[in-house]
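re: ur question from the group chat, yeah i did fold both. here u go
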Amino acid sequence: MTDLPPEDEQVLLVVHKHWASLLREAALTLIPGFIILGILFLFSGLPLTLADTSVHAIIVLLIPFCFLTLWTILAIQWTNYYLDMFVVTDRRIFYTTQINFTERTTAQWHLHDVNHVQVHFSGLFESFFKYGSLVIEGREEDTSAKIEGVPDPEYVAAVILKQGDQYGQLKETARKQRELLHFFSHEVKGHLAKSKAAFASIVEGDYGPLPSPLDSMAHAALDDSQKGVDTVMSMLDNSDSASGAMHFDKKLFDLSTTTRRVADEFRERVQKKGLTFLLSIDNSCVVEGDEQKFEQHVLRNLLENALRYTPAGHIEVTLERSASGIRLSVADTGIGISEKDMGKLFTEGGHGEHSKETNTESTGYGLFVAKQVVEGTGGRIWASSSGPSAGSNFFVEFPSASI
C-alpha cells in the first residue's frame, strides 16, 4: 500500500531496451540460422541419384521452412525490443515484457520493498555499448528479478536507490507526524473531557439550581465541549484510516438496541426543530463489528447530518433484517444532494457546494471516516438523492452475523 493516491504518482524514468541488445540477440539467431541454410543449399546443389530424390525433396522443403523460422524469431525479438518497458515512479517500479506476439506480463515492486539493486555487465560487448542487467532484490526471500538490456544501468540503479531512500524518509516523517497528532489530540481530548464533565455537573444541578441565563450558558458550553471531543475523536480515527492503521474491536452486538438508544437521544432535538421523527426498527439485528466506532462515526454522524440539513419535513430511520443481511437507512426531506456533490461524498475532506453555508462546523471528514468504519467491518455504505431540495437517503448494509 502507498500513502498517496495513484493520481499523485510521478514518473521519473521510462527505459526501453538498448538497441545493441537487439543487435546481439539478432546476431545469435542469424549466425546459426545462416549456417544451417548454407548447409541445406550445399546439399541441395549436389548431383543426385535416383535414390537421393526423396532426400533432395525434403532438403528443398526445409529451406523455406528455415527462412520462415528465422523470420518468426526475428519478429518476436523485434516485438520484445520495441514493447519491453521499464518504468520508475516516485513510489513503484514497473517492468513490462512481451512474451510473444499476443501475450505480455507486467511485474511491479513498491520502492519500500526493494532491498538492493545490482548492476551486471556480461562481457566486453555490453561494457562497450554501456548497457547491462539490473537485479532487483526484495526484502523478502525469492523476490529477486533480473532485467536485461538496460541502457546506462548504473544511473537507473542510482535513481531507484535514491528514490527508495527518499520514500523511506517520507514514510518516517509521516509516521512521526501521526504520532505527534495523536499526542496533541489525546492531550486536547483530555482537557475537553474534563471541561465536559464539569459543565455536565453544573447542568445536572450538582452545584445547586442555576438562574436562566447561566443555565443556558452551561448547556451551550456542554454542547460545545461534546462537539470538541467528537471533533478530536474524528481527527484521530481519520488519521488512522488514512494511514490504513484503524483498529476495530470486532464483536457481536445488537444493532437494534444501539439504534433505538441513539434515536431516543436525538428525538427531542428533532422534535424541537419542528421535524417529524419516524422509526421502524426490526428486533434482533445482530451484526459483528466495532459498536463504539459504528455508533460514533456512522449512526450519530448520519443522524446529525440529517438534522442539520433538513429545515422542514421529517427524518426517517429504518432498520430491517432480511435473508441477505441487515440494512440501516436514514432518510430525510432536506436540501438533497446534487449529482456533482454526490461524487464528493465519502471522500477525504469532501464538501458539498453549499454544505459550509448550512453547517459551518463541517470538517468534510465525517462520511469519509464513516466509510472506513463500515467497510472495515465488512459492510458497505452509499447514498441516493433525486437532487437539490429533494431530500436524501443514506444506506448502510451488513451481512447477518451468526449467533
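okk and heres the other one u asked abt
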Amino acid sequence: MSTIRNKIALITGAASGIGKLMGDLLLQKGLQTLVIWDINEGMMESTAKGLKERGFNVFAYCVDIANPTAMHAAAALIKKDVGKIDILINNAGIIVGKSFLNHSEQEIESTMRINVTAMMYLTKIFLAEMIATNEGHLINIASAAGMTSNPNMSVYVASKWAVIGWSDSLYLEMKKIKSAVCVTTVTPYYINTGMFDGVKSKVIPILQPAVAAKKIIRGIENNKRFVRMPGIVYILFFVKGILPASWFDRVVGQWMGVYHSMDEFKGRRI
C-alpha cells in the first residue's frame, strides 16, 4: 500500500474538478504538502487559499504544461521550495469535441501535447529521483475513451489510447528493473464536470466527481495497476475481443448509445 501520510504530491490541473478533489482528499489523509499546477491562475490561487485557511501546506504554481521550458522551470522551483515529489498525478487534460475534419491543426497539436507529451515530459523530470530512492507513485489519468473509438472525439481518443499504452508500459519497466515505484493508470468514463458539459449517456452512468476522486485515491493506497470506473469498463476489452466489430458497434455504439454520447457536447466554457 502506498503511504500518503507525510508525503509530497504534485497534481496537474488541480485548481478545479477531480484534480481539486483529489488534492483535498490526499491532504485529509495526512499528506504533508500538496503542490498545485494549473494554467488558470485565478482558480488556482482561490483553491490554494481555501486549503491553506484550513491549515494545510500548499504550494501553487501557474504552469502551462504545453510548454516544456515552463515545466522545467517550475520543477526546479519545486525542488528548491518543497523537495522531492513522492506522488505525481498527471491529471490535466483538454478535449475539443468535434469531427476530425473540423479540427484545426492547432487543436490537434494542443490536444496531443497537453494530454500525452506533457505527461511524459513531467514524469521524466521526477522519475529518476523516484527510482534512485526506490519510492514514489505515478498516477496517469487516461480515459475509457482510450479503450474504444467514438465519433466526435477522435483526437481525444487518440491521446488517451497513447496515455494508456505509455503508462502501462512504464508500469512494466518499473517491474523489469525491480523498482518499488508504482504506476497507476486511470480509465474513467465521462465525469460530470464542466469539461464534458453536454455529454449524454444512455446506459452507462456518468460519474460524479467526488466518487471518481475517492476511487482514484483508493487506487493509490492499494497500488492498483488500473483504476477503471464504473465497473462495466472492466469488461470492455473482453467484449471487444469476443464480438465481431460490427456487433460491437451495434451493441456498445448504438444500443448503449456510446457513439451518440458526444452529439450535444458543449464542453467547458471559458
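fwiw on the second one: The chain has one domain: 8-260. Residues 105-133 form the longest helix (29 residues). idk if thats what u expected
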